[in-house]
Automatic annotation (TrEMBL), chain B:
Keywords: Metal-binding. Residues 10-194 form the Nitrile hydratase alpha/Thiocyanate hydrolase gamma domain. It comes from the Bacteria. The keyword Ribosomal protein does not apply. This is Nitrile hydratase. GO terms for molecular function: catalytic activity; transition metal ion binding. Signal peptide: none annotated.
Length: 91, 196, 93
């Protein structure tokens, strides 16, 4: 099964759930809308690999957020690298 | 936390675990020492400085580096293959409009294969917690002031890519050759906590 | 889960301090821990994500009271015990 990647420019929203166990979706970037900059390859979800699961690769993205959307203030941007499963979209 | 007694205790404990793993056939004799030697001979910030200097003097290389750093690195005799596995490198260029800063908020991801081990401050909770939220204050602690008109882009290395900053070429360096330019570039410049 | 490692955006941490002329490793055993971890991952005893997870699962007080490579070694011994490679007694200080 292959996942069709979100195209650059797509607005996506990160998941809000606090997953059980290891995750590479940082707490500060949950439940926030950002923009896909580019696809950064395909990899098995680290959250699953940490449980010893052998899972298929999925798209990984650079997703850019406005600091004001993350923290309520700030003029800068923060770009986080996230797996497809970390995202709900298009937002 | 530290102290000589603690240090000798953990040192002995590490050696014992190594010896037990050798007994069980999970480590070859001398394997750890060999890996330490290889690591010491591996990545260093001088590699990043060479990449930056080449990008400053060769616009074609700069374009290729920003488009696909892994494909461009062999042009200067480097690669990202020195670690546990080859990692994707993303080079982000500073311009008049944007200054880039790198961090790994979840742990300490860093392009070790290219630049060698990261400095302790990069791994500190102080840096990792604060630079995503208030980068200008953190930059000020390094003595760096970015003009208000220049935006700040923070990159959190939260997955498989590793990053390197391509600083702006300082003014007044027209007379320097590639080696001279290489000498200007610092490790902090490659992370974004220095201008060069 | 939101664990103690996940500090991005948290307030309360002090200014960033740079150590001048910092060595690659401050003590010999740190280099051994670094190399040991690479060897065990390369051999498939555990993977890098399990290694990160094992650090994040350390008791919070132990995590905060440990240096960078002390956390690494604690994660290594945790995983070696969980995988049944060595017993905690064999690895005890």
């Amino acid at each position: 099964m292959t996942t069709t990647p979100f195209a650059p420019g797509t607005r996506v929203r990160t998941r809000t759930a606090d997953p059980d166990g290891h995750t590479r979706l940082p707490r500060y970037a949950r439940g926030v809308t950002g923009t896909v900059l580019e696809v950064a390859g395909h990899h098995p979800l680290a959250d699953d690999r940490a449980r010893g699961l052998d899972v298929p690769a999925q798209p990984v993205y650079h997703v850019r957020f406005r600091a004001a959307d993350l923290f309520g203030s700030g003029e800068h941007t923060v770009t986080v690298e996230l797996w497809h499963d970390h995202l709900e979209g298009p937002a | 936390m530290s102290g000589e007694h603690h240090s000798s205790t953990i040192s002995a404990q590490v050696r014992r675990v190594e010896a037990l793993l050798e007994e069980r056939g999970l480590l070859a004799p001398g394997e750890v020492d060999q890996r330490i030697d290889e690591f010491a001979a591996g990545g260093t910030p001088a590699n990043g400085a060479r990449v930056v200097a080449r990008a400053w003097v060769d616009p074609g290389f700069r374009d290729r580096l920003l488009a696909d750093a892994n494909a461009a690195l062999p042009e200067v005799g480097l690669s990202m293959a020195g670690g546990l596995q080859e990692q994707r490198l993303k080079v982000v260029a500073n311009t008049a409009d944007v200054h880039n800063v790198l961090v790994c908020t979840l742990c300490s991801c860093y392009p070790i294969a290219l630049l060698g081990p990261s400095p302790s401050w990069y791994k500190s909770e102080a840096y990792r917690s604060r630079v995503v939220r208030d980068p200008r204050s953190v930059l000020a602690e390094f003595g760096v002031t970015v003009p208000e008109a220049t935006g700040i882009a923070v990159w959190d290395a939260s997955a498989e890519s590793r990053y390197m900053v391509l600083p702006r070429r300082p003014q007044g360096t027209d007379d320097l050759d590639e080696a001279g330019l290489t000498a200007l570039v610092t490790r902090r410049g490659l992370i974004g906590t220095a201008l060069v | 889960m939101s664990r103690i490692n996940d500090v991005g955006g948290m307030t309360g941490f002090p200014p960033v301090v740079e150590e001048p002329d910092e060595p690659r490793f401050h003590e010999d055993w740190e280099a051994h821990v670094f190399a040991l971890n690479g060897a065990l991952i390369k051999r498939g005893v555990y993977n890098l994500d399990e290694f990160r997870d094992a650090q994040e699962r350390l008791p919070v007080a132990e995590f905060l009271g440990s240096s960078y490579y002390e956390r690494w070694f604690a994660a290594i011994t945790t995983l070696l015990a969980e995988k049944g490679v060595l017993t905690p007694e064999e690895m005890a200080p």
